[in-house]
Amino acid sequence: MIKKTLLTCLGSALGALMISSAVAAPPTEIRLGLVTTLTTSAAAGGEATKEGIELAIEQLGSKIGGIPVTLFVEDDALNPALGKQKTEKLILQDRVDFLVGYNYSNVLLAAYKAAVDNQTFLLSTNAGPGVLAGKHCNPWFFAIRDQTEQAPRVMGDELNRKGVKRLYTMAPNYVAGKEMVGGLLSHFNGEVIGQDYTKWPDQLDFSSEIAKIKSAAPDAAYVFYPPAHALQFVSQFQQAGLKGKIPLYSNYTFDGLTLPQLGALADGSLLTMFWSVDLDNEANRRFVDAFKKKHGREPSNFAASAYDAIMLIDSAVRGVDGEMSDKDKLREALEAANFQSVRGKFRFGTNHFPIQDFYLLQVVPADDGTFTTKTLSVAATENSDTYVNDCQMK
Amino acid sequence: MSQATFLLFLEQCLNGLQFGIMLFLITAGLTLVVGIMNFVNLAQGSLFMLGAFVAAWFASATGNYYLAVAVAVAATAIIGALVEVLALSRFYRRPHLDQVLATFGFILIFNEVVRVLWGSQGLTVVLPPELNLSIELLPGLTYPLFRFVFIVFGLAVAAFLYVLIARTRVGMLIRAGASDREMVRGLGVNIGLLFTFVFGLGAALAGLAGSLSAPIMSASVGMGEPVLILGFVVIVIGGIGSIRGAFWAALLVGFIDTLGRSYATSLISLIFGSTAASSVGPSLSGMMIYILMATVLAVCPEGLFRARAS
Q: Nearest by CB to A240, which of B127, B134, B229?
């Protein structure tokens, strides 16, 4: 009897000891949650995001800020409700320290609230809708790529420089599609002679819209189609006999993800982007070379932005010496953005959206018969989004 | 109406026709399976996807797109028949919910197999140069040759199906099966074999639609699901089990969807102004076929062409 009581006491004492030591010690792991699109026709972008994150973690020796990292991956299936549910699961069940990913703005807008309400940092590696940069900016939310309108605004300036007077625009009918076209038109001075929003995400045949472009005979066409839809749009544009007749300008339609399939169909097309595979800086070389070596192809902007997100988190965790419990200090360290971005200069505005340069790129043939993007010029420097003044961070 | 707008209208009609014919190829098999076997088959969209992937893969491996279409049709027919014999035939006597679950399972399996085999980036098909042209149908009306071939070929398949169903012994059994399954069984017809044939035929047609769509839509994982939903809309409008119904309903849905996308925004802007139109137009044109379906269901709940007696 006594022996049993003693053992019980010993057991509970040991248990208490273990609990108290768990509280006192510095964190022994960083828990990182990734929510991205790994199924449906948009899966390629999600795969690329995951590849970027895995490469960064690999280069950091499976550690973030010197602390071993565990990665939890969840698929949102391009479904806002599912994205929200997976976000909640990662926060409540897996107790992640950071959330990354979110390729589509409709998924992000459904999910971000769960993160910020539970005081978990969410770093969107792709989507950057205007409301989160302005009215609903939040101390727990960071955008890594850009605000959606930034790249198309720069493209609008470029169209003015090219002397385009009559423009036709086409994009999918969801948040990012509208912001892309809206951003472009806020800077484009010419006339918009036609505008189509196509059903998102299940419209894959654009015959009727392309027929309208052909009939309208504009000086140029501007489109935004994410990878899953870029293949269809560009093939059909060519099949209708418009390639070479109507110059095609775009944002986030051509890059390492779509060019292997599209190849010559995209040749010569112009785009603006926050990053390019051929940017000459040390961080980018380290990223691009390692990616090519690992996967045998060029990285896409999804991977570049995801890679940056991990390097940013790494710098922040280092900045607070692994002291993860003081969230305000950790936030300051994130805001400082004390890391080498693959895009060159990088800093955050007061709304946690990047202030950065944008580049004018062209699709060109590479030496080995494939196609790549080449940086023609810096199209905008220190570019900030227009929503920042609406943001009251609290 | 100026000449240019008229020519654009004609071109949009051709686009509608082409879309309708693609829908018909998918739903012809589906309506037979639902009508004759009383079996809800959600996996039809996956066979469409498989057709696209096999064609895209074979075309890029051999460079022969025509042969790729033939291979894709044969492959989907065999896969369809195998799936029916090995798995789905066990579900005919089970409740519809079990059938939905089983075939939904097949959607997941097919999507995953395709992802493992060909990756999530999808495959594109580069058309052979002789098909990758635009032809001048009328002065001022140029149209992609491949879409035109799609229309002609699809109409030929529809004619073949009409002859098969209306003029042959197999067709007679299929029609009989659609109107009274039990009676056909009672007359000593090997209904199991008939079911496998119908399922394989439906799969081959879906595979044909997929392989013909691959150059236009590319092959991508999950491309079958949106098409499947449209397929069910077509079946409901056309009347379950009726090939003729599926044909006319598919064309109707194709026309309304395409013309809606082309003209809804400009029509609405005439009444409500362009700002309202640019936000309402795209949403409304996406809803149009569902409004059509609701209307048809309200007016004639059995669909436009009733096939089943029971």
A: B134
